[in-house]
Amino acid sequence: MRVENYVSPWEDADLVAFRDSIRRFVREQLLPHEDKWRQQHRSDRSAWLACGEMGMILPDMPSEYGGADGTPAHYAVAMEELTYAGAMSIALSINHIVGHYILASGTEAQKRQWLPKIASGECICSIAMTEPGTGSDLQGVRTRAVKHGDKYLISGSKTFISNGQNSDMVIVIAKTDLEAKGSRGISLFIVDTNTPGFQRGKCLDKIGLPGQDTSEMFFQDCEVPADCLLGGVEGQGFVQLMQQLPYERAEISIQAAASLERALALTVEYTRERKAFGKSILDFQNTRFTLAEVKATVLASRLFADLIVQRWVDGTLDTTLASMGKFWLTDRQGEVIDDCLQFFGGFGYMNEYPIARMFADARVARIYGGANEIQRELVGRSL
Ligand SMILES: Cc1cc2nc3c(=O)[nH]c(=O)nc-3n(C[C@H](O)[C@H](O)[C@H](O)COP(=O)(O)OP(=O)(O)OC[C@H]3O[C@@H](n4cnc5c(N)ncnc54)[C@H](O)[C@@H]3O)c2cc1C
């Protein structure tokens, strides 16, 4: 779907072959279920296992932990192919994020216990940061974890949690020290969702991504062994979050760039076929001028996303670049899909048309992973 047959500099022969196999798999094994998942508001567990089998959940994880010894570029390819196909119901990115929290910050025992199951799709993950009272300001979380001997009792409420109905394990952000100032009292816990005291709330009714089970979660004296504390040391949660958030933002950036490419391809195809006043919609000067702008934006977005992928592969991706990509690419995603939808006329408003789904699905990209205003704040600090 790249414009002008552009080839990303990071895409070598191995990645081209990987892309081919993922593309076939997504179109043959996932896409046929997409409508069913949208209706039931969650993906099927069997699909996660199939994705695990394809090696697309944690391709960039060392094989000793169940990964495929690949690079973030393999993961970028998987994300792009899901986006190009419109297979948006299976939120693999959460497993990827959680896997990397554990790889970066977990104890050896935590890595061995969880990573192979996350990579295989046997363990579906959530990450529970947001609460009804706070999202952007994570220092304000009220969920607390109190130590009793060799256990912690976790209590609090979370909301908007992706994979919330399906998840087998959730990383929970909680305060272990209520007296500590700012971020110092925050810790992360790995919680098995079979633990007594954990309860799923309702699956939330959203304007987009209807196939994703975004949910509430409740913890009431949820008793977990002390070795569920990520990394084994209290008060490290905020640092652990800050280390990983750039990668979450990179993932959103990569999906945004792919979604721009898909929107342009779909729109060119449609406007070429659709006739009005005796000619193709594409032949109106207004259409060509608008799509010329779109095409330039799509190419610029691709170059931006490629820089992010390359830096991620090189290990030099920093907060500033990830946040810039997140806000800039998702802002363009919103504008471009809106422009493209216009050329579909009334069909663009019908959910059976991919452009309508893309329009609704794209809106959240400017909100989750840290609202775009927060990303501008972060970039502003680098000036
Ligand atoms: C579909 C979906 C999936 C999600 N998945 C997850 C998940 O898996 N795990 C999870 O923990 N959370 C998840 N979230 C939550 C998401 O990350 C939060 O909604 C987001 O961080 C914003 O927090 P909030 O909703 O509390 O908004 P608030 O913090 O109340 O902010 C509202 C708005 O205020 C403005 N604002 C806030 N702070 C500032 C500032 N400093 N400067 C300028 N403007 C500001 C922004 O415009 C912002 O959008 C998900 C949300 C959705 C909708």
UniProtKB/TrEMBL annotation:
Q: Does the keyword Oxidoreductase apply?
A: yes
Q: PROSITE patterns of this UniProt entry?
A: ACYL_COA_DH_2
Under Pfam families, the record lists: Acyl-CoA_dh_1 (PF00441), Acyl-CoA_dh_M (PF02770), Acyl-CoA_dh_N (PF02771)
What domain of life does the UniProt record list for this protein's source?
Bacteria
Where does the record place the Acyl-CoA dehydrogenase/oxidase C-terminal domain? Answer: 235-383
Q: Which residues form the Acyl-CoA oxidase/dehydrogenase middle domain?
A: 126-222
Acyl-CoA dehydrogenase/oxidase N-terminal domain mapped to chain residues: 16-122
- Tell me which UniProt keywords the record has, alphabetically: FAD, Flavoprotein, Oxidoreductase
As cofactor, the record names: FAD
Q: Which SUPFAM superfamilies match?
A: Acyl-CoA dehydrogenase C-terminal domain-like, Acyl-CoA dehydrogenase NM domain-like
GO molecular function terms listed in the Swiss-Prot or TrEMBL record? acyl-CoA dehydrogenase activity; flavin adenine dinucleotide binding
- InterPro entries membership: Acyl-CoA_DH_CS (IPR006089), Acyl-CoA_Oxase/DH_mid-dom (IPR006091), Acyl-CoA_Oxase/DH_mid-dom_sf (IPR046373), AcylCo_DH-like_C (IPR036250), AcylCo_DH/oxidase_C (IPR009075), AcylCoA_DH/ox_N (IPR013786), AcylCoA_DH/ox_N_sf (IPR037069), AcylCoA_DH/oxidase_NM_dom_sf (IPR009100)
The similarity comment for this entry is: Belongs to the acyl-CoA dehydrogenase family.
Under PANTHER family, the record lists:
ACYL-COA DEHYDROGENASE (PTHR43884), ISOVALERYL-COA DEHYDROGENASE, MITOCHONDRIAL-RELATED (PTHR43884:SF12)
User: Protein name, please?
Assistant: Acyl-CoA dehydrogenase
The record lists the organism as Pseudomonas alkylphenolica
